[in-house]
Amino acid sequence: MTSCVSVTCETNEVIASVKTIPAGKMLLNEPLARYTSWRVGGPAEQYYRPADIKDLSVFISQLDSHQSVFWLGGGSNLLIRDGGISGTVIHLRRSLDQIRLEADGRLYVEAGVGCPQVARFCQKNGLSGASFLVGIPGTIGGALTMNAGAFGGETWQLVSEVELMDRQGHRQWLQSSSIQVGYRKVDVPQGQCFVAARLAFSATGYDDHAMMQELLERRRLSQPINIPTCGSVFKNPEAGFAAQLIERCGLKGHQIGQARVSEKHANFIENTGGASAADIELLINLIQNSVEREHNIRLETEVRIVGEPLSLDQ
Ligand SMILES: Cc1cc2nc3c(=O)[nH]c(=O)nc-3n(C[C@H](O)[C@H](O)[C@H](O)COP(=O)(O)OP(=O)(O)OC[C@H]3O[C@@H](n4cnc5c(N)ncnc54)[C@H](O)[C@@H]3O)c2cc1C
Asked: Running DSSP on this structure, what letter comes out for residue 38?
């Protein structure tokens, strides 16, 4: 795919057309299970990994405007169905990978940088307030979209401004106050994606290495961390905790196919090896129905369920 950039001389006459060719990696029918933390998910009809932000802008500006686009970060909050995703999946993890401290003390970080990397970068540079990101396995782009949080910290508490890209490849910085955010909920402007953010930190306090180790240890003790999961499957309801409600239904250890409600933390579903997305989705539905029947509360998924079920000819 190519586009033409007009080159003009001082009198504004067009003197040449230079073709801009996207420099990233394009694959057809690429299995997505390898990019999700649950290790499930069918193929992307078209998969693109941009070389960098500018390349993403070139690529997206040339994409047919009718073609659907799905933004993939670390795949750690996604249940991609077994039939995969039609249209184009754009994978930002590690391709939008710049992180640097700016002269005014803010942190510039691109959407594909991992949350643990941000936490460690901040700790090394004496910036306080990002240590909660250390155990969140997704990208900053995903954390901005989910308002990811842990141990009292939330992503948008740190955000000063965000850079968005639209379907024409145009980039625009917005103040954090212009984006509506809530508990694991962010109103991303229609058709746009986050490509970078500037994070600001409090001048006082210091997150030391020991503090981050302690947060990781608290996770290790309470969550199944060496088994494929997507973290918490359900949001906590207004009153109480999803895990407690699931546990009270006697569902710990309940299994459908190779998908199992964790014995360690009832709001986690483990892929015990070879689970399909359909196994996991059935278990999600079963949990929602059981909790609703016993506690009169309909749990809302935190994990995003996307793509198509397997069709008979797949
Ligand atoms: C072991 C484990 C522990 C976890 N612990 C926590 C926790 O403590 N707290 C917490 O909040 N979450 C937790 N999670 C869930 C997950 O890591 C977060 O929700 C994370 O923010 C998702 O980021 P991601 O890059 O993986 O996003 P993905 O899963 O790739 O995508 C999630 C959604 O964001 C969209 N998206 C991704 N990038 C962009 C972008 N740049 N622009 C626009 N849209 C985008 C996707 O289209 C999708 O809709 C955990 C997950 C695991 C596996």
From this structure: T
Q: For this structure, is 198 an active site residue?
A: no
Closest CA to 143 of 155, 152, 131, 160: 155
Q: Tell whether pTM > 0.90.
A: yes
- pLDDT over 60 at 2, yes or no: no
Give the single-character DSSP code of 313: T
Give Cβ neighbours of residue 47 (< 8 Å, ≥ 6 apart).
26, 27, 28, 30, 32, 88, 89, 91
DSSP string covering 159-200: EEEEEEE-TT--EEEEEGGGS-EETTEE-PPTT-EEEEEEE-
Pocket test for ligand 1, best of 38, 49, 77, 280 (most atoms within 8 A of CB): 77
Instruction: Please give the average per-residue pLDDT across 130-150, as a whole number.
Output: 96
232 has a pLDDT exceeding 70: yes
Question: What value does the mean pLDDT take over residues 70-95?
Answer: 97
Q: Which of 232, 262, 276, 290 is catalytic?
A: 232
The contacts of residue 298 (CB under 8 Å, 6+ apart) are 288, 291, 292
